[in-house]
Amino acid sequence: MEDPPTEPLSSGDLWKVQISCNLQRILGLTRLKILNTVHLICYHFTNSWEQFRIHGTLDLIGHADYESARKSLREKAWFDSSPRARAAFAAPHPGHPKGSEPSEGNLQVDPNQGPLDTFCVLTLDPEEIDYYHAKDAVRILFKSSTTEIGHKVWSQQELNP
Length: 161
Prior knowledge:
This protein has 161 residues and is of the alpha+beta class. It has three helices and six strands. The protein has helices spanning 23-31, 68-80, 83-88, and strands at 15-20, 38-45, 50-61, 119-133, 138-146, 152-159.
């Protein structure tokens, strides 16, 4: 078994997922009170027998966000995407009747244009990562804390499996 990472994420890193900001999806997240609350995401890798349980806060960054750091993160995610991925955000909303819009394969987005209004970034700010290697019976809990000057630091503790 390889040694597990001593610091799962560098200070201040967020996990980012690009999603479409269609109204039904956003209303669903808001109605279920999913945003700005702590959630658990679990990854299980069958080949390596490893499991990661990641506890953290979910947040959504959309076109109406004007705070500069959030706006910058959204723009960076947009320009880091491939042209084909960007074009997907210009597609008509799924589930609506087909009209005369171009098919998804023919959509074009100006490569210099900033994020479309339909482009959102869902972030997970991890607070705790429970790492478990089932084959070798190794379990390590990584916990984040914030220093007096606001930096996120990680500690680790070996646990009984």
